[in-house]
Amino acid sequence: LAWCATFLSAQVGEDELRIAVAAAVAVLPQRDPKMAGRVIGAVKKQYGDRADAALLKKLADEALSS
Measured between alpha carbons, how far is 55 from 60 in angstroms, rounded to an integer? Predict the structure, then answer.
């Protein structure tokens, strides 16, 4: 199993995702919880499958609700 893991991309950490979400929110025309899809799409475009989708959704919702 460890040998197979060497071929997988490393997941992006929560701190790095939090920074990416903040950057994506900063360029939005307005801060609205309905914009979560745009934020998630921008970060997924940057990191692809290395970004955990559930964590990314949670961080986007947190950033847009505050």
Answer: 9
SS3 60: helix
Question: Which amino acid is present at 29?
Answer: P
* Residues 39, 14: Cα–Cα separation, whole Å: 15
pLDDT of residue 19: 96
List alpha helices for 27-52, DSSP H: 36-47
Distance separating alpha carbons of residues 4 and 64, to the nearest angstrom: 37
Indicate the length of the chain as a whole number.
66
- Tens digit of pLDDT for each residue in 8-51? 777 889 999 999 999 999 999 888 889 999 999 999 999 998 99
